[in-house]
Specification:
The complex is a heterotetramer, with 2 copies of chain A (301 residues) and 2 copies of chain C (225 residues). Chain A folds into 2 domains: 195 residues, no CATH class; 80 residues, no CATH class. Chain A has 9 helices and 4 strands; from the N terminus they run H-H-E-H-E-H-E-H-E-H-H-H-H. Chain A has a 4-stranded antiparallel β-sheet with strand order 2-3-1-4. The radius of gyration of chain A is 32 Å and the shape is rod-shaped. Chain C is α/β, with parallel strands linked by helices and 225 residues long. Chain C folds into 2 domains: 150 residues, Rossmann fold (3-Layer(aba) Sandwich), CATH 3.40.50.300; 69 residues. Chain C is 32% helix and 24% strand. In chain C, the strands form 2 sheets. Chain C has a 6-stranded mixed β-sheet with strand order 6-7-8-3-9-10, sandwiched between helices. The two termini of chain C are 27 Å apart. The chains are: A alpha+beta (301), C alpha/beta (225). Chains in contact: A-B, A-D, B-C, C-D. The structure holds adenosine-5'-triphosphate (ATP) (2 copies) and magnesium ion (2 copies). One adenosine-5'-triphosphate (ATP) sits at the interface of chains C and D.
Chain lengths: 301, 301, 225, 225
Amino acid sequence: MKVSLDTLRALGRGDKAGDRVVPPTGFTARLTVFVAAAMAFLAVFALALSLAAGRLATSWGEELARASTVRISAPSGQVATQTEAALRLLQQTPGVASARALSEAEQQALLEPWFGPDLPVTELPVPQLIEVTETPEGYDAAGLRLRLQAEVPGAVLDDHARWRKPLVAAAARLKLLGWLSGLLIAAAVGAMVTLAANAALAANAQVIAVLRLVGATDAYIARAFVRRFTLRALSGAAVGTVLGVAAVALLPSGGETAGFLTGLSFRGWHWALPVLVPVLSAAVAFASTAVAARRVLGGLS
Amino acid sequence: MKVSLDTLRALGRGDKAGDRVVPPTGFTARLTVFVAAAMAFLAVFALALSLAAGRLATSWGEELARASTVRISAPSGQVATQTEAALRLLQQTPGVASARALSEAEQQALLEPWFGPDLPVTELPVPQLIEVTETPEGYDAAGLRLRLQAEVPGAVLDDHARWRKPLVAAAARLKLLGWLSGLLIAAAVGAMVTLAANAALAANAQVIAVLRLVGATDAYIARAFVRRFTLRALSGAAVGTVLGVAAVALLPSGGETAGFLTGLSFRGWHWALPVLVPVLSAAVAFASTAVAARRVLGGLS
Amino acid sequence: MIELDNVAYSYGGGELLSELSLQLAPGSFHFLTGPSGTGKTTLLKLCYGALRPTAGQARLFGTDVREMDRDAVAMSRRRIGVVHQDCQFLDHLSLAENVALPLTVAGEPISPQDQNLRELLGWVGLTSRANALPPELSGGERQRAALARAVISSPEVVLADEPTGNVDWEMSQRLLRLLVELNRMGVTVLIATHDLQLIRAAKSQVQARVLRIVNRKLQSAGVDL
Amino acid sequence: MIELDNVAYSYGGGELLSELSLQLAPGSFHFLTGPSGTGKTTLLKLCYGALRPTAGQARLFGTDVREMDRDAVAMSRRRIGVVHQDCQFLDHLSLAENVALPLTVAGEPISPQDQNLRELLGWVGLTSRANALPPELSGGERQRAALARAVISSPEVVLADEPTGNVDWEMSQRLLRLLVELNRMGVTVLIATHDLQLIRAAKSQVQARVLRIVNRKLQSAGVDL
Ligand SMILES: Nc1ncnc2c1ncn2[C@@H]1O[C@H](COP(=O)(O)OP(=O)(O)OP(=O)(O)O)[C@@H](O)[C@H]1O
Ligand SMILES: Nc1ncnc2c1ncn2[C@@H]1O[C@H](COP(=O)(O)OP(=O)(O)OP(=O)(O)O)[C@@H](O)[C@H]1O
Ligand SMILES: [Mg+2]
Ligand SMILES: [Mg+2]
């Protein structure tokens, strides 16, 4: 017990002495903290953006999967048979995953905005709608149209939702862009912390030279700087991350319909992801300061 | 001619000599350029975000302005008279800016997604729709409903679009947030350029002291640093802005329907706005370096 | 040229110098001596306006330093050549450019091939090192460069703080001769030094007054040398 | 302790030192002299491993410097106390902390109240300035602090580069006496200096060898002093 306490105390003492030899905070120090905080703040936003773009791409992709409709307009008596014929035909078509006639309730829900909730769908010559789900490969729309024309005269294939395909591609690109900007910000954090560390080391060239001349080992000198910069980057990034998460949490949420931006938030366990930001910042600071310190030290005998 | 040429040449020579006394680029210099570029890049994005949020708020607001509908379902013969009665009543209602019956073509356009382009609207018992535009104050929905019930039995007031009201508030908040983040980034640019300038001046403390000792005036010393930092911030921010604008221009555009994010672009003359970013960065660098230089110089006799 | 009138100076603690008076007449030659830490450098700083007296009056070229703004101080430094005890340079400029720096900042840049500059560098024995950077110089070379920089702009006064502490006897004689020559041309010279041998050597070449800081005041010290 | 064997050194241009040999035996006392710019500082740097000879062999405590890694060089510096010509300090630490720095970096920090430290500061006349920051010191005070820093860790060798260039005669005698005392306790001492008077004064106190750099080589110079 005594021994370990002593060791700890010695470590504490040693650290304090080691910290003393590096001058206290100057502009480069504040710069490092500020850079880390600002970039962490932005990194949290980029993270939220990437995740939101990912969610958007997924949901648009799902919509595309059940994108086409077959509309059957026929005299009342024939609707049922034509629907059945169309369903049969669709089930045999390669590229169609499934086909399903919408129920009355579903059709009514679709039409409610226009006709009010009291619309007697059955009494109207409302066409029967069939929801067609495609396989990932998709079907040959022109061929299907020809066959429908031949076998189910009242059927019209409406793959109007196909226009969403470029959108899904766009969402995928957005997702990529989000991750890319996240990577860019990470690279920027790295570059800026490296530059700040280098600037601080350059400003402390005399300190390093003096320490080296009085017999300090490279490890001792590097440790003094590395510890300080890692802590600065960690604390700065932690503050920035907390602020960033708070800002994301406070972003007005307009519900699902409110479009993309108000979906710029974390969902579920994704709230834990920003914790990575300060950890990674500290790791970058650690590595870049170590490299920079070794480089400066290498120039001294 | 000779004189002005000589003056120019002297100026050029003087500048060159003045530039020489500040050490060439070191880490703090690269830091300044990098900071300016990174922050300009982000500023362009924040600008695009603010403008897009502004457009969104405006368009949602417009939608809200003609948000309610009156739906008249009546036996075919009575539709026309009831529509007229409803229009009369609406025009007398305080809070209603205008009311207009939709034409057949308009109704058909609205219904097309569900019934196909061949729907014979006139033959269907499709209700007549009246578009009601509110004044900014809005009308008393409950009172209007009661009066419609009494005077136009087939009319149903549908202010379903009112749910968009919180959305418009959200969009306004977003717009604010966009400008706020723009301001934040501007403040961050300012702070980081100031810090970088201070770090560089701290690293060049000896240069400044030597210059002062050999008889350089404050203006001469400050000018040498201010010119250099302004140019660095300007060039860094210019590169960052160009990259940012290019990135915004390359953002996949999914058309109007594609939701908010793909609308993250500039429209029309807004493309000229990013030019402000490097100009403002240079101005900030100019001011902050001048202040920092004066502060450092003030500490020397 | 430079007059200190009942001047006192304190760095915050007790007074380092007090009731001290000094007149540097045009063309005069002074030595300043005294044990380490008695305030020689401080006194020189008062003479070129780097410090302002805490009491009394310091006049540079007839103007009270308290009435001079920062630009006036800068301008007066162009008329005073100073060799600092810790000679600092711009480490990114060559020795020749550093020596020419007072001219550069005064807006009269000269080329490294300028005849005056070459001669001056030759006199202080730095011709072969003209293109070296300051960190590549030896201690004595730095001191000689500082002296060259102090006299390049033909100042009216030269204040030299320990200009020979790091050079050998022969070179210190050479530097002394340079200052004596300048003095013959009318330049006022004040040298702070510990080197009593140097003072003795100077006495044979020039009419020099030796001042000593004792008990925070200036004393003439001619007798005991 | 330190042996240079047919060593040559060049900074890139011509050779500054060549075919130079030197043995610092334990307990010996050497002076090194020679005109400014002949390579005294360079020779000292070779002796404490800051420079590696471009030819020949340098051995510190029996190990060839070429076989020493950076940590071994750092460790050897803890056994060699060096007074640098341009004494640099950590400007944010007090004078006392700066003097104690070699112990701090060796992991044996002492308090500013430590008896040894107080005595040493008293010897070099810096007791009253113990809490001052280095930029607040006079030139001579810095030099004395550098000497104190060089000897605080009880080194086996002391290499002093112009340790008395900025102090008065009496103080330089005092510093010399300190080094002579250490030498009597077995410490090897090498002093580079221009001050022939100091060498003469030392000769009466200690058995000192005087070396002179002439034509890029070392010569014994005992006769002409
Ligand atoms: N900036 C400062 N703040 C506080 N004290 C100072 C400052 N500068 C100098 N001193 C103290 O004032 C005293 C005189 O310093 P000064 O440099 O004038 O001495 P000096 O006569 O030039 O000595 P030396 O011969 O050693 O160069 C010294 O004790 C020094 O420590
Ligand atoms: N890093 C360097 N690069 C190039 N040349 C150098 C370097 N350091 C010193 N020199 C040159 O080597 C020569 C010897 O330098 P050194 O410092 O050893 O001289 P010194 O004998 O100590 O002189 P002094 O008495 O003036 O201190 C000088 O001419 C100097 O300019
Ligand atoms: Mg002094
Ligand atoms: Mg030397």
